[in-house]
Write a structure and sequence with these properties.
By secondary structure, the protein is α+β, with helices and mostly antiparallel strands. Helices cover 34% and strands 33% of the residues. Strands 3-4-2-5 form a four-stranded antiparallel β-sheet. Helix 3 (46-58) packs across helix 4 (94-107). The longest helix has 14 residues, at 94-107.
Length: 137
């Protein structure tokens, strides 16, 4: 399949397909360029992570929210800080990202929370389709 056929047109259906020949060559079917994004945000408390994740899932603003413990070093008000935090990886679509950011900001406990959107340039077609299906209104 020509590479250009793997790039979804944002005006077309968001279901990704890969030719059976491409799937036979690889153990996976990779889609290059997708409308899936990952939003990253951090919180200090497990209950804040749970509240944000459950709200995003309930409102269909995310298909999946993963969390992991990290240590953050940063400047805050002229002081270098080092704090344990939970990093949330929010899997959603580009068209739901703005609503997800607004919802996160509304309940986030930090004065200036880290909320960063990263493009997903490719991935397993079935997974990308699942994210799209789970974030439909």
């Amino acid at each position: 399949m020509p590479r250009s056929r793997l790039r979804p047109n944002i005006n077309e259906s968001k279901t990704y397909t890969v030719s059976s020949r491409a799937a036979e060559r690889n153990w996976y079917a990779l889609v290059v360029m997708s409308n899936v994004v990952t939003i990253m945000t951090t919180v200090a408390q497990e209950q804040d992570a749970a509240r944000i994740a459950e709200m995003l899932l309930r409102e269909k603003l995310a298909a999946c929210v993963q969390e992991t413990t990290i240590r953050s070093r940063y400047n805050w008000r002229d002081e270098i800080r080092c704090d344990p935090e939970l990093l949330l990886f929010v899997k959603t679509t580009a068209d739901r990202a703005e609503a997800a950011i607004t919802a996160i900001r509304k309940i986030h406990p930090y004065e200036i929370p880290e909320i960063i959107v990263l493009s997903v340039v490719g991935g397993l077609a079935e997974y990308l389709n699942w994210v799209n299906n789970e974030t439909r209104e």
